Amino acid sequence: MDTRTVYFDNNATTPLHPEVKKTIIKGLEIFGNPSSMHQFGREARELVEESRATVASFIGAAPEEILFVGSGSEANNTVLSLLRCESTSCACPLSGKNGLVTTAIEHPCVLNTARDLGRHNHAVTFLGVDKHGRIDLDDLRRAVTDKIGLVSVMLANNEIGTLQDIKEVARIAHEAGALFHTDAVQAVGKIPVDVKDLDVDFLSLSGHKIYGPKGIGALYVKKGAPYCPFILGGHQESGRRAGTENSLGIFALGKAVAMRALEMTDEEPRIRAMRDALKAGIAASIPDVLFMGHPEHCLPGTLNVSFAGAEGEAILLYLDLAGIAVSTGSACASGSLDPSHVIMATGVPVENAHGSIRISLGRENTMDDVTYMLEQLPPIINRIRDMSTVYRRR
Amino acid sequence: MATKWTYSDKVKDHFMNPRNVLREGNEEDFHGIGKTGNVKCGDEMMVFIKVDPATLTITDCKWQTYGCASAIASTSMLSEMVLGMKLDEAYKITAKDILNALGGLPDNKVHCSVLGDKALRVAIDDYYRKNGMEDRITTQTAKIVCECMQVTDEDIEHAVLEGARSFQELQDMTKIGTGCGECQEQAMATMSGYIQKHFGL
Question: Residue B61 catalytic?
């Protein structure tokens, strides 16, 4: 039994950074409620604010523009739900201008919130994408009517790695009088992201995608942008997100971001080189493959590839038996019986979605991992094609 | 990492060491061939049988599957189950029998195993047809509307009688159209027909 393991599923989640682990262990001692005025509370508060400053500075924001939330999903729900506000007394003057423009390839937490808005009579437009997963800016211009209060477009796609031209998207949204939100969960910590440069009103990020723990995320809210709390209750997070702060998660997120600030720049070319080697190796050793995503505007470490005549879940599980972890866009592995909505949106035949796997690299991967993958994958694809009703080797 | 695998040991065994796969080139040696599903839905299976004409017993069963681990393991398991079986006995094998032999599958994977027994029945029918025994064909004459989920017009009629009036309700009851979705138009038309027939609406 091969005991070697290779983790190639870093877009799903990442292992904790060793420095983050240390921070968590130290943080376990700091139990005070950050809202308490006594020294126990003050100690926790100080570290929470330190993390806030770290996260803020990493994305070019001011500390008071950062809210800590429970997840990227919560951050995204919070922003899209601003469109629901009908109160005349709050700071959300979006009533009557409560439509949304988003894309067909967003994360389910945006898609399903958008669909729910649609069921509640909000005008909602899902922009299609081209074969590389990019939206058409002219489509966007046409979609942002005077009914649209918010445009939400993800920065980097989690499945195919495609980057959108967020700067331009934000400009178009603003010109049309709409607010702009970007789900940057997959981008922050992998590529440079600056909220001022992009000129976004809202941005979501998540801890567990950047070697931090699960259950902690952050939402950037531009100073002066309309805002209503999604979770009502106490006065935490300046009254913008109730619930006793997840102080341990916040300490850890701060450390995870600090480590990204130190390591990201040097790491990016290394990860990109591994991804390119994987792509070249697969193309050279396996016939009839299709690479998904944009050839240039893409995350450094995401490779999505589809194999004719091989079903994704089978590929994933044979790789798992070889100790290699990937994910798949196949319907059979999704639990929903639908193949990846992202790959379907790019217009490739449905067979390509069923036969796709996503390899996503991270800081712990090495060229040895790439070599091992390139040894293991071709015979696995052969083996599956050999059993298949639809593929015959020429 | 010593964690329990995704599926049962039986499934794992058949997935890792699939039995009786038909390798290339000798399809014509078989007396009956059956195919179900299609690649668009994510599962497609073919079953090939050889039959002893004197005893009407299956002497060989081979298969090809495009699909997930459950689909591969199901057809592999089936190919072992039917060896030496009389045709009329093999005809009665259900998806449940295959599931039990595999030690079960998670609920959301059961649909991946429902094509094998159907493909086998199609192969047996094929044998009967080629050998002038059409009278033995007892497969229902229901027409398949949804290839992916193998939903027939009879299933749709049943769902209408059970109260389905919208496509959503029909889908909840039958899982129709949850694969490639190409059958939606035909499913709606079929449903409307039965609503008209039974309720005059």
Answer: no
